[in-house]
Amino acid sequence: MRILFVVIILFFSVSLAQDCFLELSQNWTDEELAGQVTNLEAAVLVQRAVDLLEPNLPQITSVPFDFDLSPDDENYQLIRFLIERDLMDYQNDLQEDGIKNRLLNRIRSWYGLPAIEIGDDLTRLELIQIINNIISSLDLDPVALIASGNTSNEIGLWSIIRNDSVYPRMIVFRPPNQEDINLANGVKSVISQLDNCAYRVEKYIFSSADTAKQLFLSNFDSRMIIVDSSPDILDGYLKVEQGLEADYFSFLSEDLADVSSYAAVFTEQEIKPLKIMRLLPRVRTNMNPKQILNFLRGQ
């Protein structure tokens, strides 16, 4: 009986762990997975992992002054992405031994994981398993921030807050089609739609769009700044005009006509506990007041 109990526990532990194997291994056959992975393929896998772990991750650092890779190069976007996220240092890094090890350890460092040593002689399957193990070892804690739209059942703001990230930010997704996802059965019935294979969304704050805006823009000087988008339409960043934040939350702004999601930060944010407490009766949440205050402080 004890052995059976242990087996059941192990089964549920495995089944509940985050698993991105299918997302990472897309388009490769079993035969191809058994082949040796190149540095370029490793870079592509790392970019896939970043997109899963950190949707709409903005630029963290600048490219070196001597970066001269032509935009016409087929790997230009990939290499620039990795350098700007501080995962590579130079455009020629993919030609060097040990780059797979460095790429993985840069990601591990984001989450305080110890460095590991891997060799260059890996199969595609082995590298995918190593990356997938990194993802499954993390306990990411996104918070859903959802606001109603024109009707009580319509979603007007569809977003998550990532304070547990290398770049804390709000990730705002285009509100879903009301016929597919709506609030008819309450907010708890929809938050799992914000999950992906790398994290589960369990905590939530639900309010009107105006209340959601006030949670982050608590003083006159605060500004909302869009720092990344999918697809990338920004030339650096976009500072949202004060008073128009709700139009950007709900994707009504023409600036977001072709955008499916974006990352936003808020400048000069001053957390005023008394004001937040006054807003709490206007929100529905499964977080206690202390958790909300810590969350808004980025803790």
Could you describe the 3D structure shown?
By secondary structure, this protein is an alpha+beta fold. The protein folds into two domains: 20-137, no CATH class; 143-296, no CATH class. The protein has helices spanning 2-16, 21-24, 30-33, 39-53, 76-84, 99-110, 124-137, 209-216, 245-249, 273-279, 289-296; strands spanning 143-148, 155-162, 169-173, 203-208, 223-230, 238-239, 261-267, 284-285. Strand 1 and strand 2 (155-162) form a beta hairpin. Helix 4 (39-53) packs parallel to helix 6. Mean pLDDT is 86; it is low at 1-16.
Describe the protein's topology.
Layout: H1 2-16, H2 21-24, H3 30-33, H4 39-53, H5 76-84, H6 99-110, H7 124-137, E1 143-148, E2 155-162, E3 169-173, E4 203-208, H8 209-216, E5 223-230, E6 238-239, H9 245-249, E7 261-267, H10 273-279, E8 284-285, H11 289-296
Helix pairs in contact: 4-6, 4-7
Give a short summary of the structure.
The protein is an alpha+beta fold. It has eleven helices and eight strands.
Rg for CA atoms: 21 Å
Percent of sequence in beta strands: 5-15%
Widest beta sheet: strand line-up: 6-5-7-3-2-1-4-8
Shape: globular
Major sheet summary line:
8 strands, mixed
Structural class: alpha+beta
Q: Helix tally?
A: 11
CA-to-CA gap between the ends? 43 Å
- The low-confidence runs, each spanning 5 or more residues with pLDDT under 50, are 1-16
- Helical amount among residues, as a percent range? 25-40%
Give the rounded overall mean pLDDT. Answer: 86
